Amino acid sequence: PLEIILENTEPPLVFVPDQTAELSLGLPFAGVEEDRTLFFVNRVSGSRRYVANIILNPLEVQDSRIEDIIPDRDVIPFMSTAGIPPRVHSLAESLASGSKTISQSVNRAMNFIQRQCSYSLEQPDYGNTDPVDFFLFDYKAGSCEHFASGLVLILRAMGIPARPVNGYTMGDWNDVGKFYTVRQGHAHTWVEVFFPNSGWVPYDPTPVLAEREVDSEVERFLLTLWETFEGYWFSYVFSFDNRSQSLGFKKIFSAIRDRFDSVASLLVHKEYLIILLLFVLFFRRKFRFMFRNLVKSSSWIPLFYLEWETHLPINRKPSETPSEFHHRLLMAGIVDEKDYANLKIVSELINEAVFKAGSDARGCLDKASAILGSIKAR
Q1: Cβ atoms within 10 A of the Cβ of 229, count?
Q2: Which of 236, 245, 259, 273 is the most buried (most CB within 10 A)?
Q3: What is the average pLDDT value for the chain, to the nearest integer?
Q4: CA 202 to chain centre
Q5: How far apart are CA 250 and CA 256, in angstroms?
Q6: Which residues contact 278 (CB under 8 A, 6 or more apart)?
């Protein structure tokens, strides 16, 4: 069993780990999209908690020949070759030459992409060129979406069912709190390939990136401790009953106590004590701001937006997104069409800052704040 705690539920998706056998949502029902995406039907403020029972043993893939694939209704949508550029078709034909099985073909396509292309978040001007074609043959650099899309089109041109998958990597392990922290920066896109005897099997064509090294033991410890506090706060304190809150505070203090000996041993060294004092002085205001946001807001919505709401004659419902709230303001005559158009830009900027990987979050929020400041209720 793997307990999953969502800090917020917007968008209201149910995240399902690989090799999940069963989900215990604690709800009478959940919504299902046509692509089998699961979502919470009713939005709630605060956190969501559910359990996924997963299979720990690695998946043993039974390889098959491409000829063994039966194009039934479950795989036909993922075999479409419509719109695949001619150069991609030619590349797929070349890579498939001599391959007898699905696994051999997938590995050849993966090796080609990883040898030829490098990872980059820069977005060049494609002009009228197909983005995947431009990525594979001309620019040869792109994000995980480019690598996944390139592999999917090559495999489909080979006659192999493949589909891109959006989700998150496992995140960072917190050794104090004994949990993984999954941030928006862990958003990722990979590929699933269909094997007749094994079903959909994940493949990740994106090159592994080198992670930033933590500068010192003190920094590593302090970051871990802060994440432990934040994790337990959202898990057991915020939006939960008194019993859960009491359990949460006990866990926080227990985690700090267990690591007190480590802190004491570090502080024996004069240089570590100086670094710690500088750290506290420098980040005091930042932590106070973060804590204030944590207490004041139960969601992903920025503080400046919440403050703007307080000046309106009607309140936003806890389940409403800014976009839905803006539409209600328009219908109530509180804002006019011009202001509504600006509010639409504000909600788009907030969504980009919070949910889009690689976005300039600070820049988006600054723009949204500036636009919001010019809008007054009627």
Answers
A1: 21
A2: 236
A3: 80
A4: 17
A5: 10
A6: none
